[in-house]
């Protein structure tokens, strides 16, 4: 069996030193005969004699500092007979430490929640650093296999151009629409009543409401300090709310430059489309009339929450107000509608693909027990495993009731004043971070599963887009170009989007903006995206 070694970061070496044989001509990689003889293919423990693994893990700020001493994982070690050394890396140093580990060749057995870019998964997978999982999933991961068999689009989304699956991603259940949507639009229902206005159904009604908020002392403090519309993360979340009214970003949140042309069905670079231009004009109108919080591009979460606590917001595009703003303010808010645009278009495009964080669980060539390792993560895709992962340990963090498992009062009403997330962090590694598991509404404890969030999602469901694209995968040659092209195009589009919305750029500059994009490798970029989309459809 493998001897545990210290995880030492060596100085970076040139990438060429990583050269390995290409997987195209290799058979599926597996463990030794000794490892297979030690493996139980069903039930627990996973192995008869203890095996040791080193896992490089990205650590979210909301989780425990050291996963080597978390109840959930300690219990799971006993169940599986697998001794894990967790090497924790905080988010602010994750990219540097991850790249150093890959470049040095001093690899862990697994990269977990390390947020590897898709391009790195493809590059290092083809070089043999990450092993292909296709055959291993078929034989040793029945729970993951079941999800892939029942959801062909998920299988397509995790298959690379060479036909290999290199990573176990985070997967949101396609039925858990509240989580797929995430942040939602919320209206101040109390203020709607004061104004004797209905919950807006169109962009024009939305404008009229925001204008009325600005002109009325609705919080009754004698000051004209109401802020009609706010969000956090610049304008992106507000755009998720209203983009469907203008027919853009109609294949979901993961694609910020391309979608589907509603007329031809072809891939479209929508930031140069007339519908996108009309959306920017609408947002410019809101911004110039001070109906959008004026420091939206620099607004921090703390300031947003402070404004909410002062009862200043008429509408927000954010997470559940009851969870964030407290009961007194939060209960004023009601779910916002999908809005109908000027030409009658009404859809909601602010939804993500079920396939997220593709570089989230990768088994390296260093791993001598890949079958056992895959069985280790596969358990958390089972119903019992999901309950354990999200709820913790019965009697410690939850109790079984007639209505199903319920978190204990020590978690939900912590005597030390800890929030639910803080209290759970002492026992499990969720919430926080993207974990390579299947997330369903049955055991998920995040705010997206709160009753008001579920209600908000149900209100949007009739208008959700029919087809949601995952992030596309590319060949090695395409990777080299798409990384450069997309970085430059994305930066320019975002700069000009902000300029048009705030009025820094006049719409008389639109034609020059479009022409500049056409000169930035637009044709090559679109050719690569079209090829990737065709492969995705044919997978």
From TrEMBL:
Say if the entry is tagged with keyword Signal.
Answer: yes
Please verify whether the record's keywords include Signal.
yes
Q: Which keywords has UniProt assigned to this entry?
A: Signal
Tell me which domain of life the UniProt entry assigns to the organism this sequence originates from. Answer: Bacteria
Signal peptide range:
1-22
Task: State the name under which the record lists this protein.
Answer: Extracellular solute-binding protein
Organism (species): Oceanobacillus jeddahense
């Amino acid at each position: 069996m493998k001897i545990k070694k210290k995880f030492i970061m060596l100085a970076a070496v040139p990438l060429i030193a990583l050269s390995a044989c290409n997987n195209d001509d290799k058979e599926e990689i597996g463990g030794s005969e000794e490892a297979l003889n030690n493996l139980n293919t069903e039930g627990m423990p996973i192995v008869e004699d203890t095996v040791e693994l080193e896992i490089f893990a990205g650590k979210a700020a909301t989780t425990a500092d050291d996963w080597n001493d978390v109840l959930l994982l300690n219990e799971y070690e006993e169940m599986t007979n697998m001794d894990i050394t967790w090497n924790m890396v905080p988010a602010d140093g994750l990219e540097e430490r991850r790249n150093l580990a890959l470049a040095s060749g001093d690899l862990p057995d697994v990269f977990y929640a390390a947020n590897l870019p898709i391009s790195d998964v493809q590059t290092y997978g083809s070089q043999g650093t990450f092993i292909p999982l296709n055959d291993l999933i078929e034989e040793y991961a029945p729970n993951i296999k079941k999800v892939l068999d029942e959801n062909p689009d998920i299988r397509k989304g995790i298959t690379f151009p060479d036909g290999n699956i290199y990573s176990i991603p985070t997967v949101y259940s396609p039925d858990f629409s509240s989580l797929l949507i995430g942040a939602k639009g919320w209206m101040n229902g109390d203020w709607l009543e004061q104004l004797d206005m209905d919950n807006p159904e169109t962009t024009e009604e939305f404008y009229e409401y925001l204008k009325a908020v600005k002109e009325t002392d609705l919080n009754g403090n004698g000051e004209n300090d109401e802020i009609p519309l706010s969000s956090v993360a610049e304008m992106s979340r507000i755009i998720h709310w209203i983009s469907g009214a203008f027919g853009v970003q109609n294949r979901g949140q993961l694609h910020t430059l391309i979608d589907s042309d509603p007329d031809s069905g072809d891939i479209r670079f929508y930031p140069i489309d007339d519908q996108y231009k009309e959306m920017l004009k609408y947002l410019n109108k809101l911004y110039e009339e001070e109906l959008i919080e004026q420091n939206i591009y620099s607004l921090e979460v703390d300031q947003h929450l402070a404004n909410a606590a002062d009862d200043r917001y008429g509408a927000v595009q954010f997470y559940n107000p009851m969870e964030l703003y407290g009961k007194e303010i939060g209960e004023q808010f009601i779910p916002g509608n999908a809005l109908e645009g000027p030409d009658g278009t009404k859809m909601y495009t602010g939804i993500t693909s079920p396939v997220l964080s593709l570089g989230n669980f990768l088994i390296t060539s260093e791993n001598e027990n890949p079958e056992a390792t895959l069985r280790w993560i596969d358990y958390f895709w089972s119903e019992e495993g999901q309950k354990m992962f999200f709820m913790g340990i019965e009697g410690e963090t939850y109790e079984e009731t007639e209505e199903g498992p319920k978190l204990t009062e020590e978690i939900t009403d912590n005597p030390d004043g800890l929030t639910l997330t803080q209290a759970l962090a002492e026992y499990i590694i969720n919430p926080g971070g993207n974990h390579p598991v299947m997330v369903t509404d049955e055991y998920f404890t995040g705010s997206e599963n709160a009753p008001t969030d579920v209600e908000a999602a149900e209100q949007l469901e009739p208008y959700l887009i029919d087809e949601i694209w995952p992030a596309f995968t590319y060949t090695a040659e395409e990777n080299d170009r798409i990384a450069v092209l997309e970085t430059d195009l994305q930066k320019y589009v975002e700069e000009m989007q902000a300029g048009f919305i705030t009025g820094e750029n006049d719409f008389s500059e639109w034609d020059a903006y479009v022409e500049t994009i056409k000169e930035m490798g637009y044709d090559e970029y679109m050719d690569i995206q079209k090829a990737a989309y065709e492969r995705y459809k044919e997978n």
